[in-house]
Design goal:
Layout: E1 7-11, H1 22-30, H2 35-48, H3 54-64, H4 70-80, H5 87-96, E2 99-108, H6 109-118, E3 127-133, E4 136-138, H7 151-160, E5 165-170, H8 176-179, E6 184-187, H9 189-195, E7 202-205, H10 209-220
Parallel strand pairs: 1-2, 1-5, 2-3, 5-6, 6-7
Antiparallel strand pairs: 3-4
Helix pairs in contact: 1-4, 2-3, 4-6, 5-10
Length: 222
């Protein structure tokens, strides 16, 4: 990485910064057992049709069926979907290297901010995700307007303007289109297999976030 190039670290959340898919877990545990299948099916449509609105439509529909017992939701998440090891180190490393970290996620804002707050990094990480007023969930693009498709890609394109270098960290099928546009990608699971034969930039597998932090330092020569 050039020392004077502006660099943004675009972070997925579910399955990336936390163990497992937290939004799916909430909906399965508190709404109904069919939600993992519904969300997975919507995610898979993005492999062949990245412009499809099915995933965000499904997330909005699922959130509308949740109640308001957020203390119970958060307790469940900390028990079943803890932060992946190294979250604080990753954000500290990015800060030291002058890299801006942004979370861009199809998940729900309330638990994403809770996890970032618990790691002591919330004030350093802008969050772009599903935000709610009462039972109504919505997603905003970079222009502030509601968006139902190409959510992650729209933010990546926004970050890439003016020659900014973007490094992506993610795990799922919904990350493939956005990550494909980036200069380097740390990937696991479906994102890693989805990019294996098509990505032209630097592709690194990761397990914990400690390894992502280490990779950033290697890229920077630090």
């Amino acid at each position: 990485m050039s020392s004077n190039a502006r660099t943004i670290l675009q972070l997925d959340f579910d399955g990336t910064l936390v163990e497992g898919d937290a939004s799916t877990g909430i909906l399965e545990h508190f709404v109904g057992a069919d939600w993992p299948e519904r969300i997975n099916a919507a995610s898979q449509t993005l492999r062949t049709n990245p412009g499809n609105s099915a995933l965000i439509d499904t997330m909005i529909a699922g959130y509308a069926q949740l109640g308001t017992d957020f203390d119970a939701y958060v307790q469940y998440l900390h028990e079943c979907h803890p932060a992946r090891p190294g979250l604080r180190e990753l954000i500290d490393t990015a800060s030291r290297l002058g890299i801006e970290a942004h979370v861009v996620s199809n998940g729900f804002e309330f638990y994403i901010r809770d996890h970032l707050r618990g790691a002591g990094v919330e004030d350093r990480v802008p969050v772009h995700t599903g935000a709610a007023r009462g039972p109504l969930l919505s997603y905003a693009g970079p222009d502030g307007r509601p968006i139902r498709s190409r959510f992650k890609e729209s933010w990546t394109e926004h970050f890439l303007r003016d020659g900014v270098r973007v490094i992506y960290v993610g795990d799922g099928a919904s990350d493939i289109a956005a990550a494909s546009m980036c200069h380097a990608v740390f990937a696991r699971d479906s994102l890693l297999t989805g990019l294996a034969d098509r990505f032209q930039g630097e592709l690194r597998p990761f397990d914990t976030l400690h390894s992502v932090a280490h990779g950033l330092r290697e890229m920077a020569g630090a």
